[in-house]
Model the fold of this input.
Amino acid sequence: MKTRATLPFVLLAGLLIAVSGIAGAPPDRYQQRTASADGTGKHHQGREIAQVMGWQAAPWLEREEREKEERTSVLITELDLKPGMVVADVGAGSGYLSRRMAPLVAPGGRVVATDIQPEMLALLAKTAADPRYRNIEPLAGAVDDTRLPAGSIDLAIMVDVYHELEFPYEVLESIVRALKPGGRVAFVEYRGEDPEVPIKELHKMTERQIRREAEQHALVWERTGRKLPWQHLVVFRRKQ
Done:
């Protein structure tokens, strides 16, 4: 997720796991250094992993000006959602995006809204109880695993989430496993190449960095959408 300079950050207490606890993780996959003001001190593929936006910032995710700033309606159009699709909203937070996608994959489709924060999952459960959004399914993930069923997802999307993942390699690998053959994963991140984007540096990513990390997995770059005001949409497809 993301924040402006004035928004507080909250590390998820009790959810930090030592790298050595991840079975099979190479010892050099992550490096621990002194943390910067907005970072965790943990580095992956040449970047410092950012601090996580806590559930206390959920109202900011629902701010009235978000459509103007991010043009979520344009993003939704770019995703080309169809009835019957199964979409994973990874790091769904308050459900802002899930609520907008759910009607477009109905009938027959669903949105699996994952998060690791109990408070966000409670918000998602409340949304799923609304008759308008009964095809939203909250799912509790882990810091190193989305827990999405294998071969079940047509499209997985992370909106301003990936740069905060404590174990980005493992989470993305779990997403790839969950994709159906030819399924897609979409990264939406504030543009790290653009100094005019008013977001802290660790909460932005360049397209080059996204591609560098995604291409460690069984993913092939498909396209980069450039229609959003501050973000880029980088889409990959699972290799056959």
Observations:
- The helical segments are 58-61, 66-70, 72-79, 96-105, 118-128, 168-178, 207-214.
- The chain is about 25% helix and 25% strand.
